[in-house]
């Protein structure tokens, strides 16, 4: 009959009212055709009430289930009202069959409560947001006025009633409750129900009015003891519920055709004017009822109130009219404020959106409209219709939480619909939720980049030291004796020379190549990180035996050690590795790092390009090294250093041409310590600067007591090459009285590798002082020949590796001969170091070297012995040694 589930059309929509109309006609014709008795007619009508109310209950509940928001509440209220009536009718029928007391009874409670449910239904049907105080007062006035008017009209019958007090009270409640219900529905229909719902509301009101009329007559008949079964008003109940059923069916069709309707609450001007006169109408209703009651009772006292009542109503109406004008002025001011607020919201850089309690959009600024344009989000749209998939996401949770708590909130979330990150601020009120939101995608990208940099090396993209430590802690938690964790610490061999030769860009390129090769040599579960500089580290889990770690280290050394081309130069940069196993070597991160570093140091000491596992004995050497570092800081102050002098022989005259001052350290705990053990420590700690100054001053003072033709040579570390060095040298010469030409400063090629331009300038300043500059250990570093053209050295000292030649090899002799010829061409003195045999002396003399130095002539000696050699004519030491 109702057609639920079918597509709505004009014909299907007319089926229900036509069927209901024919049913009503048939319902009323049957009793007349069969000339039913009064009792039969009464039971016939009662069956009609029950069927009609049950039908209305079903129709209202179906419509409620398919509705949302306040509409859902409204139709459930209508359904409960019809259901209460049906239950009361069943109860009344049961009492009648048992011939029990019918009035008053429990059935009356159901009939009266039904009126309250219809008031609730009309309220929810007319309002999508909370009503204001004026509307509450208006409804209160109408309810009171209609109830009071019903009471006044019923008063004569009440006064003449012979019913018991309880029966009289129940009887008079029927006209009071149901007239109030009808009045409430009428005011809602005329003033507050949206235009889109007014047709359905009119149908509902008509049905409620029929019920109210029947109950008014029923109450009056009870008071006058004149109610009889089959009364003329009993069919009105059937008509009322039939019309309510029609209204429910009409609303269902409308929802099927237009799921979202215009729910604007803007009132027309005539509605606002009519609303202002509601109090006056209430007064007129009361006074009119009093007049009617007076006429019915022929009481002149009621008629005399008519002029006063009209005057009162007129005054009250004028007052409301003036109040309306004041409200309009306030409304204009509010509109201006809203326009100002709107202009502010339009100018803000944030997107602004306002929803009502049903999640319908009531305001969008331009930014928000543009943001939601691809989802057709606009004023009047429902948020969850435009963004259905976000109804179960954090957006929905945050919005609902804000409305529930009525407190501002703030959160960030990714919007899949817009493919952007948004920062949202929520500002709830009892009826609305305002959102201020902005696109923070760029900021999120920056945050992600910062987060990446916090855990990764920016040059190679590998994990950094911090991230590596976190991953190592995680791996250590699962280490067992059967499945150990291998930690490999490695650095690149000779990387410093490469970096200095090719510059930092070339060094960076080598690091990136090394990182790429490390990744390619490892498995997907392995972890590799750059700890800093040229230091790297690797974690491999699940190591079953020591051989597996050895194979891993071998693979890494082979991969990194392959030749690579950087800036047109082919390089072969190897790596050394220190290995520790956990839990065998420890279970703490810092402990494993320390032991892996110790093993790495041992690997580099063995010649580089190899690996070493940590052994407890290695820690002893590290402790000794740390002890030496500590003692080195106080060695100069404690006068633990002294100089030994090794003679340099002029091969032409076979005389002592000078002495090289060599630093020695005699430690109270460790005894005599060789220079290779402590010089690099002094360079690491920076102590070499103060030590070097002491060496220079001491050597200058010693040489000042030698004959004028005897020179003194002092070694300079690359760390000493600072802008203050020329001042230190000048001060030492001045204080000792030594002439500048007798002082030779020996530097290695590393001085020109580091900040070469600045260091070259310092060497030129030293040369301008008159001191001689010699290149020491020539031929052992990078691009040695290029430095000879960049600075006019006074002397070249050939490294001992060219002098101590293996048996049967002639290449070193050729190199010595070439260097000697180059020195003669450039006007430089050539000195051969490490001459220990007569054959070596003969070779260097034959190849054209100017000077020789080595244990063949003398080992380094104290200053007193050197002075004695000079003054005792030991200049012909070389001839004596040859002989």
Helical segment tally?
A: 31
Q: What structural category characterises the helix and strand content?
A: alpha/beta
Described by strand count, sense and barrel closure, the largest sheet is: 8 strands, mixed, barrel
N- to C-terminal separation? 139 Å
Strand order of the largest sheet: 13-14-16-17-18-19-20-21
Q: How many E strands? A: 21
Q: Measured on Cα atoms, how large is the radius of gyration? A: 55 Å
pLDDT < 50 stretches:
1-9, 260-265, 299-305, 875-883
Q: Round the mean pLDDT to the nearest integer and report it.
A: 78
Please indicate the percent range of residues in DSSP E strands (runs of 2 or more): 5-15%
**Outline, from the CA principal axes?**
rod-shaped
Helix content: 55-70%
Q: What features would you describe in this structure?
A:
It is rod-shaped, with a radius of gyration of 55 Å. It is α/β, with parallel strands linked by helices and 883 residues long. α3 runs antiparallel to α4 (106-126). The strands form 4 sheets. An 8-stranded mixed β-barrel has the order 13-14-16-17-18-19-20-21, surrounded by 5 helices. Strands 2-1-5-4-3 form a 5-stranded antiparallel beta sheet, with helices on both faces. It has a 5-stranded mixed beta sheet with strand order 7-8-6-11-12, with helices on both faces. It is built from 31 helices and 21 strands.
